Write a sequence for this structure.
């Protein structure tokens, strides 16, 4: 009787389990045939980007849930999150078209299980730019723009930075510039590239898989707005998490000194000038006198200078392997002669030419030992030239000591 009662309880328990029961924590999860790589290939081959969404620049990620039946069939596909109805419909269509899966298991028996799959619809920068043109949108920002205002879209007070900020926008990328003015009144630009690359008009619409990538809108030749989503802890002094920040850039108030530095970095100087110093130069090292003679130590970080008839900039390159960062300083110079060099900060320098593209500059600061630098005609670092749209050969090696001693 006891055994019969036990069997009856087991039978009732089994009957009490709904036929549509979905196991939330199976011992073995369902698997797509061939694994995740094969699943990615299936989506890539079968997903059709709705034409209307392409034309309107709609992109983002669709989150789809679905059930894998005991026999591996896909059923009950539903959308949890989506930037557009048409993207939802396409994601569900593709999910329901998937082949039979290997079902989940509990105690070596197949069970129904729930799966969640993110499906991304992403346009390239070129496609976004074309979308902007198709919809009559404004232009991509190109050129030099100064930050006019920085604010949040939730009504909190504007952020007041203790520095001046610019964007230098080209087809290659975007230079992020911070202006520093020294006690001597010289302008210095901290120059780097931003992670967003070249800026393209997107409109104030969801961008990227999460819909939180940088947005560019209200853009033309005179101004643009850049909207970014705060999800980094290092920005907390300005913005709380999950806040949209808007940076408004324009041509108003651009300082002539900043434009001058950019012009020289773009190498807009008179190449046929009779002044032998006009041009771009790379410091090959400082002269050190030893018992064996003279030797030159390569500078670290690398230093460059660009001169025209009245100004010069020095550029210190702090770039890493995958980054671009530098500090450019504008200085007025007074040229003396081919061998006397120029006056800078009231200090005179003497010059000894090795050849028409190489010279040694000896500087004697007041109250300090003299030092001699070797300069060779050269373009700026490659990453700067790519951003600035120039292509001047970069001098990689200094002349040998025997060449130097023979002059």
């Amino acid at each position: 009787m006891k055994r019969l009662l036990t069997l009856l309880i087991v039978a009732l328990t089994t009957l009490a389990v709904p036929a549509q029961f979905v196991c939330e924590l199976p011992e073995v999860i369902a698997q797509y045939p061939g694994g995740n790589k094969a699943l990615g290939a299936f989506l890539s081959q079968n997903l059709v980007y709705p034409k209307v969404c392409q034309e309107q620049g709609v992109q983002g990620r669709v989150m789809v849930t679905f059930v894998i039946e005991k026999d591996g069939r896909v059923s009950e596909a539903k959308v949890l999150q989506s930037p557009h109805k048409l993207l939802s419909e396409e994601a569900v269509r593709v999910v329901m078209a998937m082949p039979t899966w290997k079902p989940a298991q509990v105690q070596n028996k197949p069970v129904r299980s729930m799966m969640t799959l993110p499906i991304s619809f992403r346009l390239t920068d070129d496609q976004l730019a074309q979308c902007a043109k198709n919809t009559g949108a404004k232009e991509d920002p190109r050129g030099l723009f100064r930050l006019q205002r920085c604010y949040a879209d939730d009504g909190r007070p504007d952020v007041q930075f203790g520095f001046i900020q610019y964007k230098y926008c080209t087809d290659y990328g975007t230079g992020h510039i911070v202006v520093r003015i020294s006690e001597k009144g010289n302008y210095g630009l901290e120059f780097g590239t931003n992670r967003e690359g070249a800026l393209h008009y997107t409109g104030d619409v969801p961008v990227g898989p999460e819909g939180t990538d940088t947005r560019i809108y209200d853009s033309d030749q005179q101004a643009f707005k850049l909207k970014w989503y705060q999800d980094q802890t290092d920005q907390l002094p300005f913005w709380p998490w999950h806040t949209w920040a808007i940076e408004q850039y324009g041509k108003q108030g651009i300082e002539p000194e900043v434009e001058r530095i950019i012009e020289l970095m773009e190498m807009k100087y008179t190449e046929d000038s009779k002044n032998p110093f006009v041009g771009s130069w790379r410091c090959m090292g400082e002269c050190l006198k030893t018992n064996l003679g003279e030797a030159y130590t390569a500078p670290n970080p690398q230093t460059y200078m660009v001169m025209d008839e009245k100004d010069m900039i020095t550029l210190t390159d702090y770039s890493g392997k995958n980054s671009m960062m530098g500090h450019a300083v504008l200085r007025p110079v007074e040229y003396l002669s081919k061998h006397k060099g120029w006056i800078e900060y009231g200090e005179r320098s003497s010059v000894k030419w090795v050849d028409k593209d190489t010279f040694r500059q000896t500087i004697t600061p007041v109250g300090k030992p003299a030092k001699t630098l070797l300069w060779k005609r050269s373009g700026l670092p490659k990453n700067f030239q790519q951003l600035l749209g120039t292509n001047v050969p970069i001098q990689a090696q200094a002349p040998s000591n025997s060449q130097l001693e023979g002059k």
